[in-house]
Amino acid sequence: MAEAPVEPGLAPLLAAACRAHGAAFGGAAVVLAAWAPGRVNLIGEHTDYNGGFVLPMALQLGTVLVGSPTQDGTISILTTSAEADEPHRVQFPAPRQGSPLSPGQPRWANYIKGVIQHYRGGPVPGFNAVIASDIPLGGGLSSSAALEVATYTFLQQLCPDDGDLVAKALACQKAEHTFASMPCGIMDQFISVMGKEGHALLIDCRSLDTVLVPLTDASLAVLITNSNVRHTLTGMARSRLGEEVYRRARHVVGEIARTAQAAKALQDRDYRTFGRLMVESHNSLSSACRGVLRKASQASVPGGAGMRQPITDDYEVSCPELDELVAAALEVNGVYGSRMTGGGFGGCTVTLLEAGAAERAQHYIQEKYSGTATFYLTKPASGAKVLPL
Ligand code: ADP
Ligand code: MG
Asked: What H or E segment, with its residue span, contains residue 363?
């Protein structure tokens, strides 16, 4: 975990966090700073907790944690971005032998408490910290893993562990399981820890083996579109369970095969094949709007021919907004493929396209979308790091 110079894009976030730290903690100077990225998953959805392949890349969007050690055994944390219904500050005693931390309110602090409790280099002393992030919260770009991994990376400076990266990712995942009650797979924490600039990361979620896949072609762009909607996970509890389970399993088996093929296609710079696989993935995950996708599949786009395959809707985790965004993206000349990304029920889509089409695509998608979209054009970034001050 070498110290690299702070990238220009990161400097404003770091500066804002340091200012907030001074204001919140009586002018105390920041002595430690860590950053961890969010991620976008290019393909391989709902396969990580099923022991399959995923192909995410780390984003230039991320979360910083800045702070300073204290002597009174108290941990005080301020976040500059929390859900609207939650306080931005929390304070609790550092865990001691026989008095472990436990989850509580505010909910956002549970991700941090979980990491502190499962940290492998403890006991963790008292500290003051400020969190600042440019990842949308709950938008499917994994602000939760970025928060966990930034916290862990911060603690590594406060009281070093053995530096094992896999164990770090697993401890952060365990924090999310046990303190945030979210039974997530390993993808988000893995990519936030192990991402590499200019690369996507193929992760075998069963063996935890990883392969870096270069993604530096200047003629190519990755466009993330935030639907800015979040639906709750209802409708999953259905009665016809036999058939449901069958179709869900069919998605997972197909998606694992697609992800392996997609990694190979990316390696070969075969973006048409990659785009076709993205659309197949989306259709397999889709809930509705078959008509919209059918129409899009007939459009003359680079991956067009391959998109005319049966739509199976095996996982039903998309929603009309995501389907709309994908359909609109597929109508733009120069788009190779597009799909929902993340858990589903809202959040973001990811689109692979010619760099020269990025501007046009954003205008067209916004024009077609019934809601208000937010766009992020991002390159594959590095995993978590210590920031120089
Ligand atoms: P995602 O990981 O896709 O953004 P999650 O629902 O898994 O969505 O995680 C979002 C939650 O993580 C937020 O509701 C909040 O509790 C917590 N969180 C993430 N980043 C921050 C942050 N910078 N400050 C406070 N809470 C955060
Ligand atoms: Mg999350």
From this structure: helix 358-368
